[in-house]
Amino acid sequence: MTTAILSGLFVGILFGFALQRGRFCMNSAIRDSILLQDFVLLKAVGAAVLVQMLGFALMSLLGWIKISPTPLFWGANLVGSFIFGIGMVLAGGCASGVTYRVGEGMTSALSALIGLTISATLTAMGFLAPIKDVLQKSTKIMVGEANPTLANILGLPYAVVAITIAVILGGVWIFMAMKNKDDSEKKSNLPLSTKIFKKGWGWLATGVVIGLIGMLAFVTSTWAGRSYPLAITSGWVTIAKMILPNVEAKMGWDAYLVIGIIVGAFLAAIIAGEFKIRWPGWGLLVQTFVGGLLMGFGAVTSGGCNVTHILSGLPQLGIGSLLATISIVLGAWVTAYFIFVRRNA
Amino acid sequence: MSEIIKPTKTLDVCGKICPYPDMDTMTTLKKMKKGEVLEVLLDYPLSVERIPRNLKKQGHKLISVEQISGPNHRMLIEAFGLK
Fold this sequence. Notes:
The complex is a heterodimer.
Chain A: H1 2-22, H2 26-35, H3 40-61, E1 72-73, H4 74-91, H5 95-102, H6 107-125, H7 129-138, E2 140-141, H8 158-179, H9 192-197, H10 203-223, H11 233-243, H12 253-272, H13 282-302, H14 306-311, H15 319-344
Antiparallel strand pairs in A: 1-2
Helix pairs in contact in A: 1-5, 1-10, 1-12, 2-3, 2-15, 3-8, 3-10, 4-7, 4-13, 4-15, 5-6, 5-12, 6-7, 6-11, 6-13, 7-13, 11-12
Chain B: E1 9-12, H1 20-30, E2 37-42, H2 45-58, E3 61-69, E4 72-78
Parallel strand pairs in B: 1-2
Antiparallel strand pairs in B: 2-4, 3-4
Helix pairs in contact in B: 1-2
């Protein structure tokens, strides 16, 4: 139990710190690619996924972790994650984004987070649960006793496939980057402490650091008996259950993680002088709350939010996470198109 | 260069969430004439970094980014004049 408290909180604080410094938000990453043709954060996400793919493969070979891919229930993955994608654009942040921005003092993020927690809990155990159950049970596919991954549907060991994919994708990426040199980041002569604590991090540093934190998360949560890397929604559902009367619940690694994220982001924001209680106006507050509601339902239906599926699921090669990722991206793009691109056309 | 630049228009996006600071800035700039200066007041760290790197694509020119206090920034942008 102490392991869960300490390691969950510790990893959460590191994660929150890195999220705030790197402005790492998958909603921005996905949405900006279509809205602003800005790919900086998307590159950070890509780097984090590749680092973890390589890292998880090595750690599984060493026996430190056991790969635990998300289940494949294609109907629930497609529908849930599409709704999640819509929700995150309305909420102005993904599950990890709204969590860390609470630590920056953003009231809009807090309202999104409350919406997410309410509907996630209602979908996990409340009146929305039957919808999720039907979608999940009717479309569940397994490979033998295991959840399908790119490795086990080919009949190959996980580590082999993961290392191959990571090396090929990483190699192609580095090759492309060498060809288009303008990709490189500006060099600056600021002292290291200023770069870490005062300035926003570059995408590569952000991606690699978050990838390493994901690896640390997998190992420490395995010690705590959980065996999954970073995740957000499940932690908030646990906290909601703790608050609710007559519901049995126990704080676990993931619940300490989300609390840690807020603490870490708060510390990072304070040190950088970026903490401020921000008021977006009632209209946006309602919009982010509704966005949060959609995200909570979508995440629990699909078996996870953007962190579970993209950040932690893709490196484990889960087919369910792959479907969910595609669906989150499509949901976000469609919504961004309708509310931002068309409005401004 | 050293003369005080007087903004033609001021846009206050403090408290706004992602991506409104960026979108509002871009749409306002779109409607401005060439050479007019937009002053943007913002407090969203991501946008303080993201707006400058996306201005160029539209041809707008960043004149200055000034930190007022903490996360509060003041940005001056010269419109390219898309209209």
